[in-house]
Design a protein that fits this description.
Belongs to the CvfB family. This is GntR family transcriptional regulator. It comes from Flavobacterium orientale. Pfam families: S1_2, WHD_CvfB. The structure is a single chain. The protein folds into 4 domains: about 55 residues, OB fold (Dihydrolipoamide Acetyltransferase, E2P); about 60 residues, Nucleic acid-binding proteins (OB fold (Dihydrolipoamide Acetyltransferase, E2P), Beta Barrel); about 60 residues, Nucleic acid-binding proteins (OB fold (Dihydrolipoamide Acetyltransferase, E2P)), CATH 2.40.50.140; about 70 residues, Winged helix-like DNA-binding domain superfamily/Winged helix DNA-binding domain (Arc Repressor Mutant, subunit A). Helices cover about 15% and strands about 40% of the residues. It has a 5-stranded antiparallel beta sheet, with no helix packed on it. Strands 8-7-6-9-10 form a 5-stranded antiparallel beta sheet, with no helix packed on it. Helix 1 crosses helix 3. The protein contains 3 helices and 18 strands. It has about 280 residues and is mostly beta strands.
């Protein structure tokens, strides 16, 4: 049987009234007529996603689901019955999240971070919002400054909780998070900031140390050019004012300004910073 919940590149084996039968040489699966390409030949290869249809039979589709097996995604609840919730994952048949796999009771219309896994007892794909059980519990081996992939999970009092490389939990502290367009379910690049003795991981959206100063200095220069060579910001500015204008922390701002000042690209005065002409 073909693995469900993932993509397969299969060969077109034969045509029928209901669609094309695809094969990997050992296993066949139906690609219904609605997904059959306009032009094809027997023997052509096609990449499809395999899952179970309404009658629990393997079926192929050319649609792109929002989540694949052993992955995480932020999905919306379409409806709820006495057994659990059914989430929209981009395919005709919603994905099931039983009550036992809900970290908190799901509500129709709301979105939740879930993990998609194969229930070995039923051979069905199941969504779970109890995501901690699917994260790697082994001590992380990242290095400070290492580039990683971040998936935004949820916000807390401390900052933004993320999933690192689909394996570990991480945190972007509130004072290091300034991307207004970053929403739950979004994926972005980040950097390991600190590995704590208790196993917790701090991450940042910017490179740490000297490497992070150069792009921020460039950003300040660009803002100065846009604003006719002047920004009403300096060492005495409130952190929120700096955040509003430049989307960076005051600490990062001061480092970047210091670099520009040493390079004699700006002047620092009581009312702000000026671009040297």
């Amino acid at each position: 049987m073909l693995t469900i919940g993932t993509f397969h590149t299969l060969r077109i084996d034969r045509t029928t009234l209901v669609g094309l039968f695809l094969t990997d040489g050992k296993n066949d699966v139906l690609l219904p007529n609605k997904y059959v390409p306009k032009t094809y030949e027997i023997g052509d290869e096609i990449t499809v996603f395999v899952y179970l249809d309404h009658e629990e039979r393997p079926v192929a589709t050319t649609l792109q689901p929002y989540i694949t097996i052993n992955d995480f995604a932020f999905l919306r609840v379409n409806y709820i019955n006495q057994f659990g919730a059914f989430l929209d994952w981009g395919l005709e048949k919603d994905i099931f999240a039983p009550f036992l796999e809900q970290a908190r009771k799901m509500e129709v219309g709301k979105r939740y971070m879930v993990h998609l896994y194969l229930d070995e007892k039923t051979n069905r794909l199941v969504a779970s919002s109890k995501i901690n059980q699917f994260l790697n519990q082994e001590p992380p081996t990242y290095e400070v400054g290492e580039e990683v992939t971040l998936l935004y999970s949820h916000q807390s009092e401390l900052g933004i909780n993320v999933i690192i490389n689909k394996k570990h939990k991480g945190l972007i502290y509130a004072d290091g998070f300034y991307e207004d367009k970053f929403r739950p379910g979004d994926q972005t690049t980040g950097y390991i900031k600190a590995l704590r003795p208790d196993g917790k991981i701090d991450v940042s959206l910017q490179k740490q140390g000297f490497e992070s100063i150069e792009p921020n200095a460039e950003k300040i220069l660009n803002e100065l050019k846009i604003n006719r060579g002047f920004l009403r910001l300096n060492d005495n500015s409130h952190p929120e004012d700096i955040k509003t204008v430049l989307k960076m922390s005051k600490k990062t701002f001061k480092k970047a300004v210091g670099m520009l000042y040493k390079q004699k690209q700006i002047e620092i005065k009581e009312d702000g910073i000026y671009l040297v002409k």
